[in-house]
Design brief:
Length: 62
Amino acid sequence: MSKPFFIEDDQTTGVEQVIGGDGDSVVPVARFDFNGNAVGEGYRGMTIVKYSDGSVRKEYYD
C-alpha cells in the first residue's frame, strides 16, 4: 500500500518568482487579418496583433 502524498509549504510549482520587464519593451511580433492570414506592417484595416509579452489586441489601421 502506498503512502498518501502531501504538498507542504505552498510548493505547488517549481517557479520561484517571475520578473517581467518594463512596459516599454513590449513590441508586436505578429499581425494577422481576420481570416488568420499573416499580414505586414503596411496592411490597412482591422488586424489582430500579437505582442512579445503574450498579449493580443485588435487594431485598426487606415
